[in-house]
Amino acid sequence: MTNNEVIKSVRYTLEIKNKEVLQMIQACGVELTILDVVNLLKNEEDEGFLECPTETIHAFLDGLILQRRGPIDGPVKKISTSTIDNNTILRKLRIAFEMRDTDLIATIESVGLRISKSELSALFRAPSHKNFMKCGDQFLRNFLKGLTHRFRPNEG
After folding, report:
1. Do 7 and 52 contact (CB within 8 A), yes or no?
2. Which distant-in-sequence residues (6+ apart) come within 8 Å of 151 by Cβ?
3. pLDDT tens-place values along the chain, 156 residues long
4. Which of 56, 127, 117 is nearest to 88 (CA)?
5. What gap in Å lies between CA 38 and CA 41, rounded to an integer?
6. How far apart, in whole angstroms, are the C-alpha atoms of residue 31 and residue 5?
7. Is the pTM above the cut of 0.70?
8. Which of 142, 116, 126, 98 is nearest to 9 (CA)?
């Protein structure tokens, strides 16, 4: 899944405006304009499309966490923003929406998929762990669709 698709999906799910997306990104130190946000939300084939850099998707997800949960107490753990994968996106969404294992499983089941608690925990393990499981595009796409079912039950 592209970073642009993740932003578009979360934006749709929560019905947030472009200005709010901009504020979330800027709250985490990435400078963009409202025009940049509009271009991030365009389809790839549209004129002016702007591919979302990893630094921007990190800032968006961290801004989402800040918006939904507020600032954290104590020192902030700095994570490298040079790369991002589906497991990291899933982890940040889980934090932002304050979801427990049962919430994640219910969200996935709402789109007709099944996942066991052990399979789910494998997605959140360190990549070096022997039971680590890579989160695929289709799983993340279905999770985002499940979030839409959760927050917009009459749509999606």
Report:
1. yes
2. 13, 14
3. 999 999 999 999 999 999 999 999 999 989 999 999 999 999 999 999 999 999 999 999 999 999 998 877 765 555 666 789 999 999 999 999 999 999 999 999 999 999 999 999 999 999 999 999 999 999 999 999 999 999 988 864
4. 127
5. 5
6. 20
7. yes
8. 142
